């Protein structure tokens, strides 16, 4: 499968490129608003460094991997949907749910293949919950918790993507950038039922950026289950972070932490501990799944419609707090 990468100045470009290589795909081209970044990417991963979006499209990709600033991605998404180019696109698309909604509706109307790069959708917690639910061994979910706290935002400056810390360009701070994974996971657990925001709090600013350093959100689904989402740039390490996802239900407790999947079930008194796919390697799973679904004519694991639901909740969080990190 022929892949062309757009917006390779994005800090996830390398992970997506490695994931494409693991999946056996061919990287045939790269574009970025900064030609030097496109040239460096192509020198490392192969393919042609295109001088324009048009030149990149002329390479006839089977799949476009779209990255960059949220506004730029929204415009590329509109164009590629209309031109029939399948996509794997980074998050967020647009700076708000209001911006994303017409793009998501356009994709649905055209039956476009647009897979959203929310790699934690492939968390072993969600997989195990689905297995237990299918076997009628999960029970009703009481509460779930999704923590994703990375190191200081200096890394975005180091990577040459300082715009991530400007809410006017990025759409927010840690909640929009990291918390979106946990919100999408809670929505996945809830299915189509309505979800409300019960509480949102932002932490004190530790690093002096316009974007929020830390956010805590409490969500409640129509069935009464509660989800908490923590996102931050507050872990005191430039190389490590905190990742813990938990789901507690009537018959089962499932947790993904410290590189292990922990499963306990009441009906058999059992307790299991398994190796979990490392967080960074979940991009490999996402890329392989995207390619398989595209080849099979299937719907992506995470659609723009799914992304819109998460973006809309984040919009509500910012509105409730009267705070968008500015």
Describe this structure in words.
With 326 residues, the chain is an alpha/beta fold. It has 2 domains: 2-116, Rossmann fold (3-Layer(aba) Sandwich); 122-278 and 302-321, 2-Layer Sandwich (Dihydrodipicolinate Reductase, domain 2). The chain has helices at residues 13-22, 35-45, 53-57, 70-83, 97-110, 124-134, 154-158, 167-170, 174-190, 282-296, 304-321; strands at 2-6, 26-31, 48-49, 63-66, 87-89, 114-116, 141-149, 195-202, 214-221, 226-232, 242-249, 252-257, 260-265, 270-275. Helix 1 crosses helix 10, helix 4 packs parallel to helix 5 and helix 9 packs across helix 11. It starts with a strand and ends in a 5-residue tail after the last helix. The model has no long low-confidence stretch (mean pLDDT 96).
How confident overall, as mean pLDDT? 96
The CATH topology of the largest domain is what?
Dihydrodipicolinate Reductase, domain 2
Q: Provide the low-confidence segments as ranges.
A: none
Which shape, going by the Cα principal axes?
globular
DSSP, total strands? 14
Distance between the termini: 42 Å
Query: Approximately how much beta-strand content do the residues carry?
Result: 15-25%
CATH superfamily label of the largest domain: Dihydrodipicolinate Reductase, domain 2
| Structural Rg | 19 Å
Taken in chain order, the helices and strands follow as EHEHEHEHEHEHEHHHEEEEEEEHH
CATH level 1 class label of the largest domain:
Alpha Beta
At CATH's second level, what is the architecture of the largest domain?
Answer: 2-Layer Sandwich
Number of domains: 2
Structural class: alpha/beta
């Amino acid at each position: 499968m022929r892949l062309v990468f757009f917006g390779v100045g994005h800090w996830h470009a390398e992970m997506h490129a490695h994931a494409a290589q693991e999946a056996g795909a061919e990287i045939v081209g790269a574009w970025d608003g900064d030609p030097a970044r496109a040239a460096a990417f192509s020198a490392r991963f192969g393919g042609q460094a295109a001088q324009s979006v048009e030149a990149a499209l002329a390479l006839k990709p089977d799949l476009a991997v779209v990255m960059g600033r949220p506004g730029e991605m929204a415009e590329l998404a509109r164009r590629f949907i209309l031109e029939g180019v399948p996509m794997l696109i980074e998050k967020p698309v647009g700076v708000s749910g209001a911006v994303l909604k017409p793009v998501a509706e356009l994709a649905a109307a055209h039956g476009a293949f647009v897979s959203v790069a929310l790699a934690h959708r492939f968390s072993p917690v969600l997989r195990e919950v689905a297995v237990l639910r299918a076997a009628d061994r999960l029970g009703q979910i009481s509460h779930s918790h999704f923590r994703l706290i990375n190191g200081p935002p200096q890394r975005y400056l180091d990577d040459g993507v300082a715009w991530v810390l400007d809410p006017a360009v990025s759409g927010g701070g840690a909640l929009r950038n990291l918390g979106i994974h946990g919100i999408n996971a809670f929505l996945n657990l809830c299915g189509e039922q309505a979800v409300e925001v019960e509480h949102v709090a932002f932490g004190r600013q530790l690093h002096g950026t316009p974007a929020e350093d830390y956010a805590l959100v409490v969500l409640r689904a129509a069935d009464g289950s509660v989800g908490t989402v923590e996102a931050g740039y507050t872990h005191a390490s430039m190389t490590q972070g905190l990742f813990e996802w938990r789901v507690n239900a009537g018959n089962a407790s499932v947790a993904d932490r410290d590189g292990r999947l922990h499963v306990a079930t009441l009906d058999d008194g059992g307790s299991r501990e398994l190796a979990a796919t490392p967080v960074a390697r979940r991009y490999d799973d996402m890329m392989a799944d995207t390619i398989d679904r595209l080849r099979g004519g299937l719907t992506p694991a995470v659609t723009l419609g799914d992304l819109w639901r998460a973006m809309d909740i984040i919009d509500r969080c910012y509105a409730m707090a009267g705070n968008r990190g500015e």
